[in-house]
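Provenance and format

Records in this collection were gathered into a single text stream. Each protein contributes a sequence line and a token line. The two records reproduced below are adjacent in the stream.
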Amino acid sequence: MIKRKTVSKIVVYILLALFAAIFLFPIYWAVVTSFKTYREAFTQPPKLITGIDLTNYIKFFSQNDLVQLLLNSVIVALCSVLIPLVLGLFAAYALDRSTLKGKEALGMFLLASRFIPPISTLIPTYILFRKFGLYDTLTGLILLNCAMNIPYVVWMMRGFIADIPESLEESAWIDGCGRLQAFFRIVLPMLKSGLGATGVLIFVFTWNEYMFAMNLSSSNAKTLPLAMMTYMGEAGIEWNMMATAGVIILLPAVILSIFANKNLGSGMTLGAVKG
């Protein structure tokens, strides 16, 4: 019996290690390629291990206005996280706690809006941006990302709020608190993990957003992911520089996820079980 358990554990660990390797290998390959020269990137068979050469990183920093690109990305990402979190939190609370007729249909409508392929809305969005002077502006990108993120925040936060017993708020009402006071004093502190997890996820979505940023900006509102376009030309693709740009773009999201790992794990499970 003990041997069977040991064997089953070994099999599980092997499978987990295999899946981890499959998911982590593309990141490893991007890091390795970022240290290669243009010719080495096309070497056959490819080298899985290479020395550390920072030439590509120095070239990337010298060829791009990194400060401006990074500043634009940070402004767009932070605003596209904070605004949806505030608006989506109150909307989720209203949908869960109110007795409004049709609230379930409204919730499904918000969720269904995420099912629409973003590329199908690109041309109408481009026309609207041109008409209202939002093309190539940070305001336009922020509004667009907020519109995409709010339904996701409502969907996530509603599950977290549903796990908080209404009896806690009712006790606060008996003690003289109004609904808003009960929300800020009782409900909000219990939602920190959920807010953290949701914030990290929509930050990653916004930080990595490429399609709309590429088509709705030309110079003033370019974000960091668009730096990869520099290495795609008629002569071909500089895969070593593409990998370098990818690693640099990936770093902030990875660092944030590592620091927010505790909230991300507990937040994702907070709204998963009801009853």
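Adjacent record:
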Amino acid sequence: MSSNTIKWFNPAEVYAQFTTGEEPEKREKATTNDKQDRKDIQITESAELSLAPDKARVLILCSSCKESVEEVKTSVNRRVEYILQTLKSYRIKDTCYKINRILTRQEKTYFYETEIIVEFSDFLKCEEVSNLLVEKLDETVTVSPPVFYHSTERLANLRCQACVSAVKNAKNKALQVVQMFNQILGPPITIREESYEEIMGTPNEHPETSESQKKHAHSFHDKIMQATVTVNMKVFVSFEIREKAIVHKRKK
């Protein structure tokens, strides 16, 4: 794994211990007796899940410099109107973009700048809109490369699923082991998070890949891979082991 890979999330550790609903004194005494008699199996397992980004953000910048306020605004607004019509033709809702306008003056010259920040859920549509604006508009309009990222809900779900998958893997391993000895796997006694790692980028990325090479990746595929998040979760789980009941058949 690359040493340059970004690690950027440090969650709280998960710990769970299952007990009965008895009174504290009785429960403590029962727990001591149970520990002496109880057989258990302890498993350490992990799970690794990856998630590609589901959002893309593009910054469109329109600027002009003239001696008259009316002229500079007219020049920029004409291009902004074309951009908004393009977004509308691709059925991009008003809630998916934000417009900021800045007017400044240096001596007798006015500088007017309008930035449009557009968020896409459809990456193909993002590519088509960006290419069209670059093709149709002049050098006064700048279209930034897309920045890919994850929505908050999908990222939270990924972290949750990594924990659940690690516990499931631990249960499956424990089940296979106890079945080898003709035993029954009981309920969990303890579930504890051992380690958690979250990285951005390709997990098997070559170690010699530099930050400058990452920044200058041009293809959509490369940018999506660089924004992909991989979560690795390791858990410790102990399960109770129960013996199979022996069934005696009656003699006829």
